[in-house]
Specification:
Largest sheet: 6 strands, antiparallel
Shape: globular
Oligomer: single chain
Number of strands: 6
Radius of gyration: 12 Å
Order of helices and strands: EEHEEEHE
Strand content: 25-35%
Length: 83
């Protein structure tokens, strides 16, 4: 059996994860996918904006997301990190 769904909003800062799926309506998912947020991409929360929304690194591109949207992105840990 697979592990329970992990959401991007649950990930601590500076931890890289892999996007598994987007639990969003097609219109909202399409906007993210056009920005490169696709299943299989690497996402790393960098910081929080003054309004509390996450700023993330997606395969080398910095994007600002809404908190509500981050809670709809299912992710999995990318494995061991290299320090």
């Amino acid at each position: 059996m697979s592990a329970p769904d992990l959401r991007l909003s649950d990930i601590p800062m500076q931890e890289t994860v892999e996007l598994v799926r987007l639990d969003l309506p097609d219109e909202q998912a399409a906007v993210l996918m056009e920005s490169g947020v696709l299943p299989g991409c690497s996402i790393c929360p960098l910081r929080t904006s003054p309004s509390g929304d996450p700023v993330v690194l997606v395969d080398g591109t910095v994007l600002a997301l809404r908190r509500e949207m981050a809670s709809c992105l299912c992710v999995r840990t990318a494995g061991s990190s290299i320090d």
